[in-house]
Amino acid sequence: MPAPIRLRELIRTIRTARTQAEEREMIQKECAAIRSSFREEDNTYRCRNVAKLLYMHMLGYPAHFGQLECLKLIASQKFTDKRIGYLGAMLLLDERQDVHLLMTNCIKNDLNHSTQYVQGLALCTLGCMGSSEMCRDLAGEVEKLLKTSNSYLRKKAALCAVHVIRKVPELMEMFLPATKNLLNEKNHGVLHTSVVLLTEMCERSPDMLAHFRKLVPQLVRILKNLIMSGYSPEHDVSGISDPFLQVRILRLLRILGRNDDDSSEAMNDILAQVATNTETSKNVGNAILYETVLTIMDIKSESGLRVLAINILGRFLLNNDKNIRYVALTSLLKTVQTDHNAVQRHRSTIVDCLKDLDVSIKRRAMELSFALVNGNNVRGMMKELLYFLDSCEPEFKADCASGIFLAAEKYAPSKRWHIDTIMRVLTTAGSYVRDDAVPNLIQLITNSVEMHAYTVQRLYKAILGDYSQQPLVQVASWCIGEYGDLLVSGQCEEEEPIQVTEDEVLDILESVLISNMSASVTRGYALTAIMKLSTRFTCTVNRIKKVVSIYGSSIDVELQQRAVEYNALFKKYDHMRPALLERMPVMEKVTTNGPTEIVQTNGETETAVLETKPPHSGLQPGSQANDLLDLLGGNDITPVIPTAPTSKPASAGGELLDLLGDLNLTGSPVSAPAPQISQPPFLPDSSQPLFNDIAAGIPSITAYNKNGLKIDFSFERSNTNPSVTVITIQASNSTELDMTDFVFQAAVPKTFQLQLLSPSSSVIPAFNSGTITQVIKVLNPQKQQLRMRIKLTYNHKGSAMQDLAEVNNFPPQSWQ
């Protein structure tokens, strides 16, 4: 058999291939020749064939059939064979394949070999792909080599020990005696790998961390020698002595000094020396300075040292390298909460980064700019951020607008400034603002009574001839509807009033209605505003009637419904119109604790659960949550906390509760206030029925009858959505005493959605002299048999009562 081609010739041949198919053909032909050679047990060219196979593996072609040949090369006595064999093992084998266990004995023999280079090959292979079983078997040999005087072997043994500790953490103590003298080594390679080993041990074991804290003075001394030492050709990189070792030592110091006063005190001086003596003209120096800054910020360092670190980051912001500027902005963003004043000194440089061409730098600069806003600089920072909002790319506008809204709400120096700022945002990036911006601004305007005339005049001028910014048009329409009389009367004191007639105001709103740029929601705002003006204007009521009647036949169902209802107000209930359309009262500010749970159903977004505040009862909230967990029983149940009456009307939109988020189904319930959702003011109150129900002739059932308490279910089906069943519960009390603090709770399987409306009362009168009614709405899109668990809680005869029941006897007409 002819001798196979050399690796160099194979590489040259493959590079001549002009197409992928031609290269694949060459590879397949060579692989076939290599397989034939392996089958013939050709020891002469095995090393050459495995080398070629590794090259093909690096090109992405399969080479698994060479695994056993690698083991044969490892078992060879020739160093050249072992070198290729171990390289092949590192590339072709890993711990997921049982073949690698066959080489354990070979590695053990080579670790005890008389030649240091063979021992080095074995250490490299074990440190690269050794499994936990191999590490356990060979840890003793590694520990022995870690104590040897040969620096070539010690540095490789230290890295191999790192791999052993990662695979088998319980073997960590075995290497503890060997680490005592590692830092006394003069060889930088041994020092470097020793620091890596100590870092790994400290990160994995608190006991090791406490043990190695006594090494801080020694590490400080090594670092100081590196800084103060003269030129050393073998360790010099761009004029800095061994920057790789410096960075590793700084990382280890950061771990050792974290949350420890004594260790932090011991390293303060050396960190200051590194920060002031390191050359910053080259990237190598910047890398060391960055690690120094991270260490200063992470340990309990002195305040002056922290200011020095932030000043270094400030200098990074002036660097021409984009990566260094990005790193500086990211680091300042992490430290701005703890060292706010020090970061404030670099505010102008940070704001300049908003003009950077790199989008990553621009985003980090925007986030940091918002973090720097406070009551003292809010005017200047908002000016810069508004300028940025005007010129930034579309992907920044939404986040920037949200940040300006939050900062303005928190630090606004005056209500006029607040309103002007938000109107500027709506004018500049109205199409990109979040959905809640419109109701929030409306609430702000409503509560600023003295600014009504000024605001409506500004908004009127803002939308003249430009309806492209939908949120701005919506707010303007709402304000014109509410305060149109102030606009016409010219009562504005903050700026020169404009002369506007009633017809001109209606012209604007009608233009919004017919504009192609107006969304359906915007048209709803405009039509409602026109309707409100019928009670604020005196000369144009007939024109308003005509406009409203025209939209009674609109193809937009929402607009049509409003127009029909408003027409009915004019015709049948004209005496109620002034009271119904009177000016909105001051709105209460609603705080939320997070996003509201929204459920997607058939492409439409619906609220998961509607809830109002339950009345006070003797049960604690925590016990109620635990009781509901008992009620659920399994993981396939969707719980619903019921609503109960309150002494005040429900707020617009009601309250939403993410039950699966607020109730920890694994055992410990979480109690949190229910967030409220904002709703456009022209929408009807959510306390009105959400469905148009019609009687369906479904028989009633008795769901519960015990201890004098009787619960009856009556059913209706919605004519707008056949999948919705409306259940009306009636609770009656046949005992001689009233039942108070009555709470009805329900849970259904996850395939259903359940909405529980407010009950009519929390007291069930005695002797069946009255009932409590409550409405449950169940969405059953899959038409499955309805099942429900209920829980009843009430006070009777001075004691708290509760009971559970399962309702499975729903009539088929209620769910089919």
From TrEMBL:
Superkingdom field: Eukaryota
Intracellular or extracellular location(s): Cytoplasm, Perinuclear region; Cytoplasmic vesicle, Clathrin-coated vesicle membrane; Golgi apparatus; Membrane, Coated pit
Segments traversing the membrane: none
The keyword Nuclease appears for this protein: no
One Gene Ontology cellular component: AP-1 adaptor complex
Membrane topology: Peripheral membrane protein
Gene Ontology biological process: intracellular protein transport; vesicle-mediated transport
Chief location: cytoplasm
The keyword Transport is assigned to this record: yes
Keywords: Coated pit, Cytoplasm, Cytoplasmic vesicle, Golgi apparatus, Membrane, Protein transport, Transport
Annotated GAE domain residues: 696-811
Family note: Belongs to the adaptor complexes large subunit family.
Record's function text: Subunit of clathrin-associated adaptor protein complex 1 that plays a role in protein sorting in the late-Golgi/trans-Golgi network (TGN) and/or endosomes. The AP complexes mediate both the recruitment of clathrin to membranes and the recognition of sorting signals within the cytosolic tails of transmembrane cargo molecules.
PANTHER family: ADAPTIN, ALPHA/GAMMA/EPSILON
Protein's UniProt name: AP-1 complex subunit gamma
Organism: Chrysolophus pictus
